[in-house]
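To whoever picks this up:

The parser on our side crashed when reading a file containing two proteins. I've narrowed it down to the boundary between the first structure block and the second sequence. Both blocks are reproduced below exactly, byte for byte. First block:
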Amino acid sequence: MTLLLADLPLGARATVSRLCGDLAPLDAQQLQRLGELGFLPGEPVQLIRRGPGGREPLAVLVGETMLALRLAEARCVEVTPA
């Protein structure tokens, strides 16, 4: 079962499946940036925190690096829950 990183419950761990460019509200350059930040297939991720009101930014641990993502970016990362 896969879902989008934006839909992962708080504290949940998962593994990146793919960047879903076909559904993405982002352009190719923004998707490439996500890959450069470490959102690559097989990489472990964890949703650490959501912004005020459960919105953005999302604090995400990818590998050993903590990043802040917008919802649009998190909706482009498909993950498999652990």
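<<boundary where parser fails>>
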Amino acid sequence: MIVCHCLQITDHDIRAAIDWMRASDAETIITPGKVYRALGKRADCGGCMPLFLDTMRGCDNLAVPPVLRGLRSTSMGDANEGRRQGHRLSERRTAV
């Protein structure tokens, strides 16, 4: 099925690109930009993006690798991303 008429990308092309990326690096995070790059193309009008993403989500190899799951919750448990409390100017008290 043709997913993108502008660039002539099919669902088979998307699946093949994802399979190729997963085979070359099992721990990579696969994004639409990486799929376009693997196909040697660039997004044009964006009208195909919903169908493009649905096709990507339907691939078995798209899942986040087990090694990378849960990294954010363990390494970044702090909501302020390591910044001091009151790092914003609006939160600082001014001397009167």
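After patching the parser it read the second block fine. The first helix runs from residue 11 to 24. The chain has a mean pLDDT of 82.
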